[in-house]
Write a structure and sequence with these properties.
Helix content is about 50%, strand content about 10%. It is α/β, with parallel strands linked by helices.
Length: about 475
């Protein structure tokens, strides 16, 4: 064995062992993409696609990896990760230009008693129906701008599109504030699956549409049967804004559809404005199923991601926008992609209608008219300072690890208010800025405060008074 190839031989030996231990599909998904880079002494360095990939490996296979490395290298074996360079979007290309709207193959659906009222999608007597997937070709992966805010979601989505229904990400639950790209990501997965597997039936539907269809079907004899029969024929079901699915009846229908599809290895994708645990008025049995696969949060885009998105959209509009104007917009509008795009389109429209040049002055005027003065936007630091001032404690105490009751309550309230007042601010970001807490701690704090607000009058008054101090800057 040549010394220069020792790292390859070591990793191949590891793979042979791991392959005998874990599920073959998981082995293909999580270990085949890993590439050995080098080995020095007992330290093996490998390359993985992303930090998310590394996190999932360590959460799901840490014991297997440790055991295998010690067996192959020795008791003092160590594993070091490096990440592949993030792929860059193709320059000056509009991937959806000229793309055809995705269409599904016709599928057979048996209707109940031909001659009665038609179901929401099915007409009695027809043996085959064509289902519109309702996918917008513009919402493809190539038109997504990747950044820290959405990299985990894109990585998971690309894995799903390679083998829908056969990855650990089933269901995939995408959540986050408005305008952060939940619909784009969900549809991009559907489009990618449709391109790779044209025989699979893909359907995108909103939670409100599912609810309306259910209510339309429930009071007509046999129409509910057609409704359920239709959804149980879908291979990839994408439900947008699942939080709108209120009501025991339609949640029960979704529960049955979920079970039927999941047990048959069909792919389920949901989007929501909140995490599964925060879905109030949902049946616990349905909410628990949303946690079976992967729940991924889309966060607020950073400056580089916002700037990349603006450049991409300006090209799509066929307009040359000076770099300093794009940089101004990216620095001014920080909340979400939707407001960012809206400001750019409004700027282009103003320039066209008034025949004025696209300048920073015009951009300033347009953004002020659309979103007001974002220089007064709520920040994590501002929320924390407001909470500290209200409870007469120091910021250092708030960010410390002390378990003193008054400090813990103030800390939890600050997390809760950051979650509610800062659009698109991720749980991880709030945790990092609150003394290095993890996202599960932040989520627990938000749930605790919400419960106390609903049950404790004094606590509710505290939160209300702090909210009034924050609200004037909005």
């Amino acid at each position: 064995m040549e010394h220069t190839n020792r790292h390859i031989d070591v990793w191949e030996n590891c793979l042979r062992i791991i392959e005998q231990i874990i599920d073959p599909r998981k082995f293909e998904t999580w270990f085949k993409p890993i590439r050995p880079l080098s080995i020095e002494g007992s330290t093996l360095t490998v390359e993985v696609p992303s930090d998310f990939f590394r996190e999932y490996l360590e959460e799901s296979f840490l014991d297997v990896i440790k055991m295998t490395l010690r067996r192959v290298i020795g008791s003092d074996a160590r594993l070091v990760y490096e990440f592949r360079p993030v792929r860059r979007e193709q320059a000056m290309v509009l991937p959806a230009a000229g793309a055809s709207v995705p269409t599904n193959k016709s599928i057979p659906i048996s209707t109940y008693q031909p001659g009665i009222s038609a179901g929401p999608f099915v007409y009695p007597g027809l043996k085959r129906v064509s289902i519109d997937p309702r996918l917008n070709p513009v919402y493809c992966f190539a038109n997504m701008i990747e950044g820290e805010c959405n990299r985990m979601g894109i990585t998971a989505g690309e894995n799903i599109s390679l083998s829908p229904g056969n990855t650990p990400f089933n269901p995939l639950f995408i959540y986050g504030g408005p305008g952060l790209g939940k619909t784009h990501l969900a549809q991009a997965i559907g489009i990618s699956i449709h391109e790779k597997y044209p025989d699979l039936v893909v359907l995108y539907v909103s939670g409100n549409e599912f609810k309306t269809q259910y209510m339309d079907a429930v009071n007509v004899r046999n129409k509910l049967t057609d409704f359920l029969a239709f959804y149980m024929k879908i291979d990839v079901l994408i439900v947008d804004d699942i939080q709108d699915l209120q009501g025991q009846g339609c949640q029960n229908a979704m529960f049955n559809v979920f079970n039927h599809l999941h047990q048959r290895g069909k792919q389920l994708i949901f989007t929501s404005d909140r995490a599964p645990v925060e879905l109030r008025n949902f049946e616990e049995r349905l909410r628990s199923r949303f946690k079976w696969g992967l729940a991924v949060e889309l966060g607020r885009p950073d400056y580089d991601t916002r700037l990349s998105m603006l450049r991409s959209r300006a090209f799509r509009e066929g307009v040359k926008v000076p770099d300093e104007v794009l940089e101004f917009l990216a620095s001014t509008i920080k909340s979400n992609f939707r407001e960012l795009e809206g400001s750019l389109i409004s700027l282009i429209a103003h320039s066209t209608l008034t025949r004025a040049g696209i300048t920073i002055d015009l951009a300033d005027k347009v953004t002020t008219g659309l979103i007001g003065d974002e220089k007064q936007e709520v920040s994590i630091e501002m929320v924390q300072d407001t909470v500290c001032d209200y409870f007469k404690i120091s910021r250092e105490s708030l960010l410390s690890s002390t378990r003193k009751r008054t400090i813990v309550q103030a800390r939890q309230i600050s997390m809760y208010l950051c979650r509610n007042f800062i659009p698109g601010c991720s749980l991880s970001t709030i945790g990092e800025e609150t003394g290095g807490k993890d996202h599960s701690t932040v989520l627990h704090a938000c749930m605790t405060v919400q419960n106390l607000v609903e049950t404790d009058r004094s606590f509710r008054q505290w939160v209300s008074e702090i909210e009034k101090k924050i609200a004037p800057v909005l």
